[in-house]
């Protein structure tokens, strides 16, 4: 499946292989940036990659 650059929360959950929205919201609270485009919350795929990399480096 090819995902768009600006993913919905459901697409982000799938992309990051997260099982629940609760976990996704915890990541958002830790700094994963969310944009609102056309009234819909979106997460930039590149930002999701940066966030995950920062979590790995943080250890």
Q: What would you note in describing this structure?
A:
With 59 residues, the protein is α+β, with helices and mostly antiparallel strands. Helix content is 51%, strand content 17%. The chain is built from three helices and three strands, in the order βααββα. Strands 1-3-2 form a three-stranded antiparallel β-sheet. Strand 2 and strand 3 form a beta hairpin. The longest helix has 14 residues. The chain is globular and about 35 Å long.
What keywords describe this structure?
59 residues, globular, 3-stranded antiparallel beta sheet, 3 helices, alpha+beta
- Sheet/helix structural class: alpha+beta
- Strands side by side in the biggest sheet: 1-3-2
Indicate the radius of gyration in whole angstroms: 11 Å
Unreliable spans = none
- Count of DSSP E strands? 3
- H/E series: EHHEEH
Share of helical residues: 40-55%
The helix count comes to: 3
Average of pLDDT: 95
The N- and C-terminal alpha carbons lie at a distance of: 30 Å
Overall form: globular
Q: What is the makeup of the main sheet?
A: 3 strands, antiparallel
State which percent range the strand residues make up. Answer: 15-25%
